[in-house]
């Protein structure tokens, strides 16, 4: 059955058939069907996307009209039927005296045209095209987000068959990386698909400066870092040009020769799922993975899990390596650490200062905080080490209005976990982390649950779609080199960890509603900055930097606060200043 969304009568709808030659039987059949069919959802004109509401109503009504036989009736009957099911909001529009001729309100095509014009917003095509052609890729914005925004912007530009071609041209002009633009311009017969692939596969070649320093002592904090940690993949690319200086090696992995790319810019090892099946069989047992892999352009690479496998180099050095398993068409990757440990690469220090810093006896110069001072600080500043604090200024999450909100249904929770999930939600509510809400919201996210090794549960937000709409702060995060340079002469150190760091930043009321998530027990929203949103790391680092920037001998790296000094006396003074 054709589902033409136009409600205007067509010759096909009134075409004579064998059935239309028996009017009495058709009439009886129509009455019986109408008794069983009803269009219970009226046209919603008082809120939301009116044009989208109209399109959905049209799709439902055209099927209703055909199924009940209303399409065979005269125009006045069709109008009466439409007004019966369309709802009170639309009746008010119908009663507005804007008809061209006296009997237009009884003509089906005129009535439908009136509703069409009412629901269709006034278009300024020139302005829409201006918005499209002036949109450049923002700093920190992934290619996936950029393309999605361009596609959204061009929906009302009336580009027709040129749409994909113009999006491709806008990507070339709008990318914020000069080298990527040069690569795009070198591609023969560039299409939108090729442009996206080139940009997505332009992976960062050096990632050491972005690696985070952790080292938490509490299991719960370690798990929080794992859940939100991001590892940088230096290069997983379809390009194997010689000028890129790419090196490949064939090594026995559990006895099977496997081709891997040596990538000193990657923090992890990567193996293709198809290669893994050749090594361990068609049903490999892999472990769950809690971190993401991201590219230079911030695109995430889906990880199926991790597995440890023995790898032997040509120098007979054997190591048990952890591989992240993915499904791509690119070669596997051997990261910096594994390549070095297998003797495949040699690290040559650039100068004597770097060489001196790597000497084993250098670490022995660092002085340890005395147990007496440690206990004294814990007692004197007991309130600082209890619970989690709150910064004064609430954070307002900026949203891109061109991104359509997404509403997720509640995820199913195993019956065995439901009581424990409810208990954890109640505890988070008592602590002021979340609150229950009743009002409708545009964004509704999913709830994710992780069971910790000690058997307790951790509930967190899964803002997969919300992250596509969040505008990031673009705050420059400190690098390891920046921090270590400023601590070069220090001998006394203390590292403090901000407990539940992101939760220390409250959200304003509007932003709280953006974090709404569905549960089997109703809807909740966060009152504090949740783990997982794309802007959380930069916002937290910015607040930490602002808070401690005027203190000497203090470095901040996300939720780590490092106090350092050349002497014990200075160190203790710096530490007290931080705790004050």
From TrEMBL:
<feature type="region of interest" description="Disordered">
    <location>
        <begin position="1"/>
        <end position="22"/>
    </location>
</feature>
<dbReference type="Pfam" id="PF00078">
    <property type="entry name" value="RVT_1"/>
</dbReference>
<protein>
    <submittedName>
        <fullName>Transposon Ty3-I Gag-Pol polyprotein</fullName>
    </submittedName>
</protein>
<dbReference type="InterPro" id="IPR050951">
    <property type="entry name" value="Retrovirus_Pol_polyprotein"/>
</dbReference>
<dbReference type="InterPro" id="IPR000477">
    <property type="entry name" value="RT_dom"/>
</dbReference>
<dbReference type="InterPro" id="IPR043128">
    <property type="entry name" value="Rev_trsase/Diguanyl_cyclase"/>
</dbReference>
<feature type="domain" description="Reverse transcriptase">
    <location>
        <begin position="450"/>
        <end position="579"/>
    </location>
</feature>
<dbReference type="InterPro" id="IPR043502">
    <property type="entry name" value="DNA/RNA_pol_sf"/>
</dbReference>
